[in-house]
Amino acid sequence: MEISIDLGTEVLSVAANGEVIAREPCVLARSLDTRMVLAVGGAAARMLGRVGADIEVVRPVVHGRLADPEAAAQLIQRVLSQKLGWRWKLFPRLYLVMSDPADSYVCHSLTEALRPARCTVVPRALAAARGAGLPVAGPKGQAIVDFGAGRTEISILSLNQVIASRSLPIAGQSLDEALRQHSLNSRELNLSQDAARELKHSVGCAVADLSQGTCLAWGRELASGMPRQLEFSAREVADSMADPLTRIARGIQQALEQVPPGLAADLVDQGLLLTGGGALLLHLSEYLQSHLELPIRIAENPAHCGVLGASHPVAGPTLGLAS
Ligand SMILES: Nc1ncnc2c1ncn2[C@@H]1O[C@H](COP(=O)(O)OP(=O)(O)O)[C@@H](O)[C@H]1O
Ligand SMILES: [Mg+2]
Fold first, then answer.
1. Centre of ligand 1 from the C-alpha of residue 240, in Å
2. pLDDT tens digits, residue range 118-156?
3. Cα–Cα distances in Å, from 296 out to 143, 270, 276?
4. 205 three-class SS
5. Is 141 in the pocket of ligand 1 (CB under 6 A)?
6. What are the backbone dihedrals phi and psi of residue 191, each rounded to the nearest 5 degrees, phi first?
7. Atom of ligand 1 nearest to the CA of 10
8. What domains are there in the chain, each with its CATH number?
9. Whole-model pTM above 0.90?
10. Ligand 1 within 6 A of 244 CB?
11. Which residues pair with 273 in a beta bridge?
12. Which residues contact 130 (CB under 8 A, 6 or more apart)?
């Protein structure tokens, strides 16, 4: 049995034997005094903002970067025990998908904390490309954009290696925040992060689509401080997310301009593949296609590609693309 784990900013995904067996919020609640784990995943996420001073609710990954390796290890161990029981300890070979495996200090802390399991850290771009079925073993350059919650990563792969990559701290959470700001400033309604994300999932689109209609969202009215429900149209939601989307498109464009000339023709030929949960935003491929003038495809199961492509990695060095 092989176990793969994708440590995302918002979602922890686990796959065993090529099947996704868990997708949980990447959140852990623990006692501040004893460091004892009190809850993980969905149960811990429900405690966010609702606990006293003796409990901390932690997100181990912030903007795609592993910020708390101890919490990440506890979260992984607890989720594996919940999903696989004691069996997971018999197969202690774990493939860990992470955004920035080059940050060797935090990676090392995490893999040490997971001992005796033997861990292999896999760059997210390589895992996502394999999970999406891209022929990364060949000499042709393959371009992939992983659009997660905390980060958008643009990578060029060839011969089983990430040969160039650029990572932007603008992604799904930036769209949620833009929507929250719009609601505060123009509708005088304070939406929670969860409410903004739900609104984006219901009627959000990269290009306004009137057929998406409207959606009601609860928030706190600024004037009265009372809970209130307002209706948001798909156009309003799309307009409020326009700024971070433009910045993402510009960031991808700048990254592609740095691609070594030998690979540029491959990109024009094959275009970009989108992975990550953010790729589920309606009309994103049309939006990027019109900005980048390249063919854009969305992976079949964009949010699952990373965890499904993690095992048997042949990782290689990564060159940073100039900003
Ligand atoms: N249907 C959808 N429409 C728009 N965004 C979506 C949709 N489904 C998921 N997302 C967004 O995808 C992001 C999560 O992507 P994922 O790759 O699962 O996360 P992580 O960064 O934790 O790996 C979140 O910002 C989430 O709001
Ligand atoms: Mg992801």
1. 18
2. 999 999 999 999 999 999 999 899 999 999 999 999 999
3. 10, 9, 14
4. strand
5. no
6. -90, 145
7. 22
8. 3-116 (3.30.420.40), 126-170+245-308 (3.30.420.40), 172-242 (3.90.640.10)
9. yes
10. no
11. 144, 297
12. 136, 305, 308, 309, 310, 313
- List the residue whose alpha carbon is closest to atom 16 of ligand 1: 277
- The 10s digit of each residue's pLDDT in 36-47 is 999 999 999 999
Which residue type sits at 166? R
Torsion of CA 161, 166, 168, 172, to 10 degrees: -30
CA distance linking residue 293 with residue 87, whole number of Å: 49
Q: What is the 278 CA–ligand 1 centroid distance (Å)?
A: 4
**Matching residue, tokens 């490309």:** 129
- For ligand 1, what atom is nearest to the CA of residue 146? 17
- CA angle, corner 99, sides to 179 and 153, nearest 5? 55
Task: Characterize the bridge pairing of strands 93-98 and 3-7.
Answer: parallel
Q: Give the number of the atom of ligand 1 that is nearest the alpha carbon of residue 302.
A: 17
